Amino acid sequence: MSVPDLTVIDTWLFDLDNTLYPAESEYMALIEGKMTDFMARETGLPREEARAIQKRYYHEHGTTLAGLMAHHGVEPKAFLDEVHDVAMDRLTPDPVLRDAIDALPGRRLVFTNGSLGHAARVLKHLGLDHLFEDTFAIETADYLPKPAMATFEKIIAHHVFDPKTTAFFEDSEKNLAPAALLGMTTVLVGGHAAASTADFVQHRTNDLAGFLTSARLKEALR
Question: Which of 4, 48, 180, 196 has the fewest CB atoms below 10 angstroms from its CB?
């Protein structure tokens, strides 16, 4: 297995959910369940029909919220506060990942379609909150989610970094496409990563901590 060469990277972008913790925790299932409850209440439809619309909105608009705002005029803060109000006991801090992120040279940012409050809670619970300069969340993006190119352009302008010296870690393949167009190094994270054949995905890993620990880094070649 080849060692990832990340010696040009000085800015590190990380998605949050199912990236900085494993999808196998099924933490997102709790949030998605609350999204379905919200959708059923909003539409008055049976839960299974509401879930089908929820999934359609996610695929068509990037997030369920974006679909609800476009088609139902939903106020975003109320939705975000409700669906992210879930127990944290499925999430387990990973000291190996914490140390691997801590060793990365340069700037570290979280780039999520979740809310600022959700990101703050999860990062604190995982013991990662002190490792990141900032979180660029759905509110920061004016509720236009990844993979919208305008949102990528906004985070670049907001934090002033060079995409060509930036690595972006994501569990969603489609969210890596605009990053690659901008010149970022793209890393697909999760159990599904190995099966990806997308040409815009440069690296694939089911072990984020191991990937970061094994990579060759700027000023710390290994």
Answer: 48
Query: Which H, E and C letters describe the chain, residue by residue?
Result: CCCCEECCCCEEEECCCCCCCCHHHCHHHHHHHHHHHHHHHHHCCCHHHHHHHHHHHHHHHCCHHHHHHHHHCCCHHHHHHHHCCCCCCCCCCCHHHHHHHHCCCCEEEEECCCCHHHHHHHHHHHCCHHHCCEEECCCCCCCCCCCCHHHHHHHHHHHCCCHHHEEEEECCHHHHHHHHHCCCEEEEECCCHHHCCCCCCCEEECCHHHHHHHCEECCECC
Overall domain count for the chain: 2
* CATH assignment at residue 128: 3.40.50.1000
Per-residue pLDDT of the chain (222 residues; tens, 9 = 90+): 589 999 999 999 999 999 999 999 999 999 999 999 999 999 999 999 999 999 999 889 989 999 999 999 999 999 999 999 999 999 999 999 999 999 999 999 999 999 999 999 999 999 999 999 999 999 999 999 999 999 999 999 999 999 999 999 999 999 999 999 999 999 999 999 999 999 999 999 999 999 999 999 997 544
Q: Is residue 222 part of a domain?
A: no
Is 103 part of any domain? yes
The whole domain housing 163 covers: 5-22+92-217
